[in-house]
Design brief:
Blueprint lengths: L1 E4 L10 E2 L4 H6 L7 E6 L4 E9 L17 E2 L8 H13 L4 H7 L5 H4 L1 E7 L3 H9 L6 H12 L6 H8 L5 H8 L3 E7 L23 H16 L3 E7 L5 H14 L3 E5 L7 H11 L3 E4 L5 H12 L5 E4 L11 E7 L17 H12 L2 E6 L4 H8 L4 E5 L10 E6 H6 L9 H12 L3 E5 L10 E2 L16 E3 L4 E3 L6 E3 L12 E2 L5 H11 L5 E4 L9 H10 L5 E4 L12 E6 L2 H5 L6 H15 L8 E6 L5 H8 L2 H15 L6 E9 L2 H21 L6 E13 L2 E10 L2 H14 L7 E6 L1
Parallel strand pairs: 8-13, 8-14, 9-11, 9-12, 10-11, 12-13, 15-25, 16-23, 16-24, 22-23, 24-25
Antiparallel strand pairs: 1-2, 1-4, 3-4, 3-5, 6-7, 17-21, 18-19, 19-20, 26-28, 26-29, 27-28
Helix pairs in contact: 2-3, 2-13, 5-6, 9-10, 20-21, 21-22, 23-24
This protein binds adenosine-5'-diphosphate and zinc ion (2 copies).
The site of adenosine-5'-diphosphate has 16 residues, from helix 10.
Length: 745
Amino acid sequence: MGVYLLQSTNEFDIEYSYLVNVERDYARKIKRGSFVTVPFGRTNKPIRAVVWSILPPDRDINNVKLKYISDVCENIPALDDKQLKLVWQMHEYFFCTVGDAIRCFIAKEGYKARVVKKVFLAKPRSDIDDIINGNTLRNIKQIDTLRILTENTAGMTCKEIMSILGLKGDSVVKTLIKKGLVRIEEEIQLQEYNQPVDVRGMNTYEAHVLRSEQQKAHDFIVRLVNNGKFAECLLHGVTGSGKTEVYMQIISKVMEKGSSSMVLVPEIALTPQMIANFTARFGNTVAVLHSKLTDSQRGTQWQRIRNQEVRIIIGTRSAVFAPVKNLSIIIIDEEHDTSYYSEEANPHYDAREVAVMRAKQENAVVLYGSATPSVKTFYRAVNHDMYYMALKSRANNKPLPQCCIYDMRQKRLSGMGDSIICDDMKTEIIKNYAQGLQTMVFVHRRGYSGQVMCAGCTKTLKCKKCNIPMTYHSSQNRLICHYCGNTVIKPEKCPECGSTEFNNQCPGTQKLCQELHALIPEARILRMDADSTATKDGYSDILSRFASKEADILVGTQMIAKGHDFPGVTLVCIVNADSLMNMQDYLASERAFQLFTQVAGRAGRAELPGKVLIQAYDVDSYPLTAGANGDYMDFYKNEIIVRRNLDFPPFCSMCTIRFSANDDKRVFLHAKTQVAKLRNIICENNEQDVLVLGPARDTMIKMNKKYRWNITIKANSREKILQILKRWINVKKRGGNITVNIKFE
Ligand code: ADP
Ligand code: ZN
Ligand code: ZN
């Protein structure tokens, strides 16, 4: 039979043949999709694997004496044909190993942690009774063990037996195993179902009567669902237009016809508030899946889903793998959010794309919801590649907050000294504080520096090829483009205006807090950045303290922009809008626009009107002006031209291969060799329109003590990149302990 290993690298990701012990294994219902343990390599190390194909039993391939499968893991539910098909699609589409994809379909790590070893009687009850009452056993502890096992037919752990009988070790059990009287089996430990998030005391709301544009969108999508065919639709609704209410009423309709719904939300948006709203409306038919669940909680939720005890699954990225049956709709809320993409962990999958694969299998509808759709998705809607519904007005009729942009060039000229915030912003913060209202202040990224901005014309020095800001490396006095690897000596003069003064600093949250403290000494200030949220609960801790008005001012990085509603916040300040727009990534403008829009939507959500203040040098840039005006179309029209001109997605397909290891030089040299190999393959195949860029440093130069170098491949189709990668894996030599990550844009 053929198996794939659960833990493997691309090089070892092939189907391995093993023999089956016909009597033993088939009796244990081994089939395609079953989890097994196999002896692997010269040392016969036991490794988890999945049965991929059933071959005629007992035969030797190429005269190699095949080994036998060592065990069948009955406690992990076998994957069904649909799941196996998805695994294969993921393997092909994300270029991950089959094992990487398979692991997504097991409650994370659950197959290790949830498994308990239990002792069972290995003989029929009557035989055991004879032994207990007979003379074959002379050891009273052994007899006692057998006796309590006859009383506990569901099996017992070794520990339980030891504690009941007061045994010091497991030698009694071991002896009984040797004698063939008891056996050990692995079993999933099921837990009582607990609501994993405490939602007591949360305010929830009754179903609203839909406004006419909500009703129209609702009716359209319900009709799509009832068609029973795969379809995609974008629900483009401004902040506060009541998208959630539309989702919930669609879900009600789906429930009425006995089908299931899945709602995917960004990591940060799965708040107790949101869960409370869903459970208040739908009761116990909701399963919640998020990354803070313990393995056993997740296992329990999956069990409920598998048994069809729930009809609604709401969760973050990995919930897309939940074993839902009879799925009619997958709603992807805040479709543009980056947390749908698995950036750090293998496999690098995009939950939105997996959702599409699943929906196709199930003839279900994918509904994308956002106030600021990603350019990629909106482009597809514009090109009639998916349906489009818009919600243009706010449900509660509250006006959008007033937005004010300060031109920092003028402010600096008129003298601000060392201070980070200008006088006008200071005045507003004091005024807001004096009224007993809350303020949020954003700085982009903690202590971020590296980009070089001209003090004269405020242009950031960018790569000529990519239009992406370059990073300054002081040791070599060079500017380096982290996207294509292009490098130049730092110019003496600004190429735009000739000024010789450059600025390469961004303020950190800490410095900002000091300034605010000096401004209003008695104000209570909370800081939220990567430092203060280092602990697991630090993040939600700070947010809930701020929500319960334990502080007047919250200072933070973009982390504070998303998710939570703070009804008390009436003033939002952005200190350095430029550094946000100038990130070293072709998506920088998109992210900046989304953030400005979100921030603007954050102020004045409740009864009080809100105000947004933005400090910027490049005050005319479109992400900023469009964001401040809440004008999506203005942003999109500008951005799509840039993408087309520079040939970025959606006008091309792009893939990054990331190499990382402790030794910087070695990683670089290895990556360089791979660039050559890739270019060779492209030449040999006479491929036009394929570009290999790099090696270039990752924006995170070093992570977890490992240096990172990237290669980027650009082509006009994903298929072309995948073909090249397949050939490359065959000629690529293993680079010692250099880790390789492959991700697609
Ligand atoms: P979005 O997700 O589109 O930003 P929300 O779903 O958060 O918007 O809705 C904003 C507010 O409007 C919520 O408080 C919600 O209860 C309310 N709301 C939604 N639909 C209606 C409606 N038809 N009539 C009145 N209020 C509504
Ligand atoms: Zn200049
Ligand atoms: Zn470049």
